[in-house]
Structures are given as structure tokens and as C-alpha cells.
Amino acid sequence: MKFPRTHSLKEIAEIIGSGFVGDEAFPVLGMNEIHVVEEGDIVFVDHPKYYDKALQSRATVVLINKEVECPEGKALLVSDDPFRDFNKLTKHFKPFKRANSNISETAEIGEGTIIQPGAFIGNHVKIGKNCVIHPNVTIYDGCVIGDNVTIHANTVLGADAFYYKNRPEGFDKLLSGGNVVIENNVDIGASCTIDKGVTAATTIKEGSKLDNQIQVGHDTIIGKKCLIASHVGIAGCVVIEDEVTLWGQVGITSGVTIGKKAVILAQSGVSKSLEGGKSYFGSPAEEAREKLKQMASVKMIPEIFQKLKKN
């Protein structure tokens, strides 16, 4: 998430009430999670296990809960609670704005696009040409939709990320300041839910087709010409490369990559990254032929046992 203008390190420290290490005029351009940070961004870290990863990332400002040695060319924001203060920045730069109508006056809707009755289009949404948005679709603030996109009834684009910190008093929510981007020629079925990124975009690329009742988690990227069947659940920060096929009820854990042209058969559970160009099955998912051989071998165990008893 980029800020509307460049801010100084001192300005950011004043917003969150923290100390800082570095030149007070050090430029700050935005804020992002560790997997999408760029130069000029703030990243937060609140556990020693991840200090090095944050300090060595592309981020040039690290919001951290301990004053440590600052790498050359970077700056620190020193806070007693980086999670809380990251939320403060999200509230400051992406505050919640209530809606005053079903279709916001700030929405941009392209020529030939049809918005069916009952749909909700939030603030600063952009929808391209020749799209069809069916009844009761909800498109949250800031989402971007390309040309020739069809979204069926009751689908929700841009709900908050499912991201919480477990504190003694209960779960503390990390606020979402990202959005959803749907590229050209995408079809999305009924009752799908596609969550916004925490600080960046959840993206579905050109030509992909989604069936009904699919969940896509925050910051996930679905490549071009993917085919995803109903009841698939995709966690946050997943990368699905181009031309991947996911059949019904596939579940994918967070942070993994599915390689180009992979096929994952129905009811498989993906717990690690998978190479492209292969078919997978099972939970945990393995190459389909090998998994089916294993299943056939298991069926033979009683027969083998009986033979051993006779001998």
C-alpha cells in the first residue's frame, strides 16, 4: 500500500507515537507485509525469530519492538507493540468510509457494463467495459475489475483478511488496507468469497474461471487461464501459476506455490508447494499415479496377511 505522498520518518513516528532510529527526514513511501515489500515500505516484526528476515528484506523501514543495529540505508521505528501500530497506520491511511448508496458516486463503471438490482458497488471501485454484475454481488471499496468480467449472484469481493494475533485477552485483528484485482475475461460463479489483501492486492489474472462457492484468501495470486471447481478453499498468500486446474473441494494451505499447468484432483489437500505440469491427488497431495498405486497396495494388505497366516 503506497501513501498518497512521501512522508518523513519523523511524521510516521508521530502518527503512531513511537521512537525511531535514522534521519528524521528519511523518506517513507508506503507499508506492506513481508512477502510483498518494496523499497520505501514499512514492514513490521514483533518476534525475534523473524528479526533478520525483516531487517534483510526489501523494506527500508522496519517497525520493530526492540532497538537493534540498523542496516545501512534503512531506518527503524521502535514500538512496544508493532502489530498495534501497523494497525494505526492502516486506520490513518485507509480509514473505513461508510456507503451512502448501493452504487457509490466515486465508482467508475465502463461502457456496456450491466449492474443488476441489489448489487453493491463500494467507494472508488473501478469496473471495466462489458461486464455483468449479478444481483446481490458485493464489491468492497477500492476493488478493480477489468473488461468482460461476469460475477454471479451473492459473490463478495474485498472482505477483510482472516488474520489475527492471539493475545491473552483474545484475538486481535490485523486490519486490511489492500484490495481485490480481477483482470479481463474472468468469470466468477455464485457465492464466492475473495478477500482483499492486507496491504496489497488479491489478484485473479486474465481468463481464469471460477465455479460457485469458492474461497480465496488474502494476498493470493491466481494466474492466467486457471480453472477452479466448486468448494475449493485457498488460504492467504498462495501463488497459483498460469493454467492450473483445481477440481472440487481442493484445500490449499497458506504460503505455497502451485506450478504452471498443475492439475489437482478432487478432495486433495495441498500442504506444500507443488511443481507444475503434473497431476496430484490425496491429502497430503502427491503425484496422482503414485498416490493411486499406494491406495491399491493398501487394499492388498488383507490378502497378503491371509497368505502369511496360511504359510
Oligomeric grouping of the chains: single chain
Q: What is the typical, i.e. mean, pLDDT?
A: 95
Q: Choose one word for the global shape.
A: globular
Strand arrangement, major sheet = 8-11-14-19-22-25-28-31-33-34
Share of helix among residues? Answer: 10-25%
Gyration radius from CA atoms, angstroms = 23 Å
Give the uncertain stretches in residue-range form. none
- Report the strand count: 34
Q: How many domains, in number, for the residues?
A: 2
Give the class from helix and strand content and strand pairing. alpha/beta
CATH architecture of the largest domain: 3 Solenoid
Enzyme class: transferase
Protein name: UDP-3-O-(3-hydroxymyristoyl)glucosamine N-acyltransferase
Pfam family, one: LpxD
EC number: 2.3.1.191
Structural notes for this entry:
- With about 300 residues, the chain is of the alpha/beta class.
- It folds into two domains: about 1-95, Udp-n-acetylmuramoylalanyl-d-glutamate--2,6- Diaminopimelate Ligase, Chain: A, domain 1, CATH 3.40.1390.10; about 110-295, Hexapeptide repeat proteins (UDP N-Acetylglucosamine Acyltransferase, domain 1).
- It contains five helices and 34 strands.
- It has a ten-stranded mixed sheet with strand order 8-11-14-19-22-25-28-31-33-34, covered by helices on one side. Strands 7-10-13-18-21-24-27-30 form an eight-stranded parallel sheet, with no helix packed on it.
- Strand 4, helix 2 and strand 5 form a beta-alpha-beta unit.
- About 35% of the residues are buried.
- It comes from Flagellimonas hadalis.
- It is an enzyme of class 2 (transferase).
